[in-house]
Amino acid sequence: MTDQPNSPQLYLIAPVGAAASTLGPMLAQVMDRFPVACLRIPGAGTEEELGRIADLAREIAHARDVAVVIEDHVQLALRHGLDGVHLTNGARGVRHARKELGQDAIVGTFCGASRHDGMNAAEAGADYVSFGPCGTTALGQGETAPLDLFQWWSEMIEIPVVAEGALTPALIGQLAPLADFIALGAEIWSEPDPAEALAILWR
């Protein structure tokens, strides 16, 4: 799949709640084996712990030419030299993040399954829009982002689109021609060997 001309790039989401001490080897192992376009740091945790994780992730990712964004924390992104933020509340906050971080920073945003939110985020200046979950999950409101949303977006909107959430090999195969990035995280970190789990998904 990843060898095809229109194949999406891999967008890696770091595990939620992982201590900086265990996170480093996990990230390095995966990023040494697979070409990752962007690494996202989840926004949960104390300021101190997130700062440690941000510094660690930046060091590992930048050594491999991988961009790093953090969820929602604009000031942490600035303070720790990250490449930008991933907002989790749709179009809200895009303009503020852009103003704080500057034109060169990455400002992406999660828009659930809402075409309307995605369009508003694009108009507000987002660098990418993320839709999901794509697979069935009990998390959130239980609403999934359908394939036809990605189909429409890929045909009508120039802003890159990320597919994420409860992804399976079959879903990734269906989304590959439609999405610019496939975001994987929880799908691999719960497995004994995350790199091997990713190899099964990312073929």
UniProtKB/TrEMBL annotation:
Cellular component terms (Gene Ontology): cytoplasm
The record's annotation in InterPro entries points to: Aldolase_TIM (IPR013785), ThiamineP_synth_sf (IPR036206), ThiamineP_synth_TenI (IPR022998)
Q: Which Pfam families match?
A: TMP-TENI
Query: Which residue range or ranges hold the Thiamine phosphate synthase/TenI domain?
Result: 11-184
Q: Which UniProt keywords apply?
A: Thiamine biosynthesis
Give the Gene Ontology MF terms in alphabetical order: thiamine-phosphate diphosphorylase activity
Check the record and name the CDD domains matching this protein. Answer: TMP_TenI
The pathway noted for it is: Cofactor biosynthesis; thiamine diphosphate biosynthesis
Q: Name one GO biological process term.
A: thiamine biosynthetic process
Instruction: Spell out the protein name for this chain.
Output: Thiamine phosphate synthase
